[in-house]
Amino acid sequence: MRPTTDSFLTGLRGSHTLASRCTLVAPGQTGTSPNGITIPGVSDLGRLPILTGDVTTDMTADVQSTLDLTTRYPWPSKPSDPGTPYGQEIYVERGIEYGTGTQELVGLGYYRIDKVEQQSVPDGAIRITASDRMAMVRDARNTAPVQFGSGASVGSVIDYVVGQAVPGLVTVYDFDAYSTLLGADHVLDEDRLGFVQDLLAAYGKYGYFDYAGRFQVKSIPDLTKASPVWEINSGTRGVLVSMQRTISRDAVYNIVVARGEPVGELPPVQAVVSDDDPNSPTWVGGPFGLVPTVYSSAFMTTAGQCQQAAAAKLAKVIGLPYAVSLGSVPNPALEGWDVVTVSYPGNSEVHVIDRITYGLAPGDSMGIDTRKQYLTRRAG
User: Which residues contact 33 (CB under 8 A, 6 or more apart)?
Assistant: First the structure.
């Protein structure tokens, strides 16, 4: 969950006024107060008018977050003009305005402009589609092989590979990445994003660009240990607007076989992790049956790494048979894989967020796709 004040969270449950801001910025900035590009006749601070728009975050996508914005500004006549898809970005914020007139905004991140279109020439509204900085990593395919020795650290490799695509990169690790060594030689071929994803998965990690434009590397959360960060409830001071639910076993598995296939003379290694909780609907000993998936990587050189990677992969789908789509009063502090309580007449459930759509215009609700957390297992 992104940082906010207690007043902000309390204000969301009462009468409040929407506040949203989209700022056109030059590339390479980080933080929550970037310098805007002057837009002649519109804003000296780079503020783009918001006619309609939303930010969508999907934890299953390679590029997790995208922006769709309809706005107005002078149609660009040359590549250096404001609002062109030649490297310019939009910093997006969503929040509330208090009765005093002050605003509290929560950053939703930096989005590289991908496409600009105008359906009604010459003075019609302009629609911008944009992607978070992971799109830069995806697009910057490597043109010549780069070899990393076994003594290279995970942190230095990630900094180099991602930093080539994202100038001014700032990385934040939740482990000692600079003392964790690869353990085997590896070669970066064309697929820069695939290389990064495979390397991180071998350590049970995932990477994403956060609200301040930093590349965060974190462990995939153990949802059996996480506590809810927010309640989505109906009734008095509630924020639940609508709710739909589905039960499906599509793309659900309950056994992960992780195989390490290191290059060179190191022997292959393997670990198997299964859903062993009798309280889970996908328990391997229950009527759901055995549904294994196999994951292999050259980055895994020990059985311990295989165990960690398999557990992280299984954590992404535990509880998936019961999926819920919610409409909620927007809380921009919520992020993918946050754990929330969903309360409605007669029931209260713990859910994990997999997808969020943050509306940016007045009256927009927030769409959330979740999966119910069935498990009761705790560490011990």
Answer: none
Domain ranges, residue 120: 6-131
Query: Which of 160, 133, 164, 158 is closest to 64 using CA atoms?
Result: 133
127 and 169 in one domain? no
Amino acid identity, position 144: A
CATH number of the domain that 206 lies in?
3.55.50.10
Residue 122 preceded by cis peptide, ω within 30 = yes
Structure tokens at 339: 């754990």
337-370 pLDDT, tens digit per residue, is 898 999 888 888 888 898 999 999 988 889 999 8
Confidence of residue 379 (pLDDT cuts 50, 70, 90): very low
Structure-token pair, residue 146: 């780069």
Contacts made by residues 268-273, CB under 8 angstroms, sequence distance 24+: 269/300, 269/301, 269/302, 269/303, 269/305, 269/306, 270/303, 270/306, 271/303, 271/304, 271/306, 271/307, 271/309, 271/310, 272/310, 273/307, 273/310, 273/311, 273/313, 273/314
Residues 127 and 207 in one domain: no
Same domain assignment for residues 119 and 160: no
For 83, counting Cβ atoms within 10 Å of its Cβ (0-12 exposed, 13-18 middle, 19+ buried), the class is buried
CB atoms within 10 A of CB 348: 10
Any residues with CB less than 8 A from the CB of 298 and at least 6 apart, and which? 184, 186, 198, 260, 261, 262, 263
Number of domains in the chain: 3
Taking the C-alpha atoms of residue 62 and residue 46, their distance in angstroms, rounded to an integer, is 29
User: Residue 319 and residue 339: Cα distance in Å, rounded?
Assistant: 12
With helix as H, strand as E and coil as C, how does 89-112 read?
EEEEEEEEECCCCCEEEEEEEEEE
Final residue in a domain of this structure, among 219, 241, 274: 219
Q: Is 0.85 topped by the overall pTM? A: yes
User: CA gyration radius for the chain?
Assistant: 22
